[in-house]
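dumping this here before i forget
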Amino acid sequence: MRMTPGRVTIAVTHLLGSGHLSRALALADAFARAGWTADVISGGRPAPHLSPGRATLHQLPPLASAGTDFRTLLAADGRVAGPDDLAERRRMLTGLLDGLRPDVLITELFPFGRRALAAEFESLLERARAAAVPPLVLASIRDILAPPSRPERLHETGERLARFYDGVLVHSDPRLIPLEASWPITPAMRGLLHYTGFVAPPPPDEAEGPEGRGEILVTAGGGPVGRVLFEAAARCAASGALPQRWRLLAPETEAADLAGHLRAIAGPERLTVEPLRPDFRSLLGRAAASVGRCGYNTALDCLALGVPSVFCPFEDGHETEQATRAALLARRPGVATLREADLTPDTLAAALAGVIGVAVPRLDPAALAGAARSVEIATALRKDLRKERTR
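structure:
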């Protein structure tokens, strides 16, 4: 007998960029398209450029990290979040779970990360376990994780997996980026892993409209994370070392402030500066090359569309995720990596000259169907769990 779709709830808190939320929304939309009722509970700052699709988005009082210090959490007004702020989030989170009563509960990144919010996630998981009919509980993780800094971190993660979880959705293709590249896999953990392929939206219609065709497209995130790359790109544009026009897409909250500064470096005949756009991926598909960080979504967009790319991985603090991903992907034709310490207008021009015009092999569409495959895996695991409970 075929199991009817149920209800899925995904809990996610993005603290620096919006990639975690983007992936959670794409996953929820895939569940919704398969007939499920899908809810995403977001604990990070609102990201108006991201659409929930057919899912419903619930917003907790938002938190953000103090730069790359993920142990210091800032409330919406910029002050350090205190015990009362965190208690209110826990109350709202567990209250939402009680009201939604999902058949499947997915925590994004936790327990492999978000240790600063461990009390919050554990309150959610304890409440789920205490339900009259507990949901199937899954973790959702990207291809590359920040490795545990100490052996006890690995042990802690393993204990939480054993205590609360029925499986782990690994949004990667092990032939390209195995989880072992960044995280030590224990025998107990290996039995919980389910590779889904990458979670990426379908490619846009590249032929739609001439805007941006043949340009160099630059995205880099917000604040100081992005400014250094935007400035290097503007100076490279001003130098005339490459014939292409440049288009820089900055976060909406910073685009206006950055625009004047960057246009003073390179005039409008060489450079366009505007806020990050919902049709970013269509622009990317028409670009001569992409310059950006090497976050999960950025890298996948470039590889899915076959765009020559220069990745400048984010490496502030103890961040290793993007550098690891960039090093693996730079083995492919038409992909180069440039460390921020080596970033100058000249090195950027040289890296771009080496990739522009190179045919970039696109990823196999099956490797990009991670959202749909996640739904299939969750459906099968839910069916197995129901059989086990009726024995």
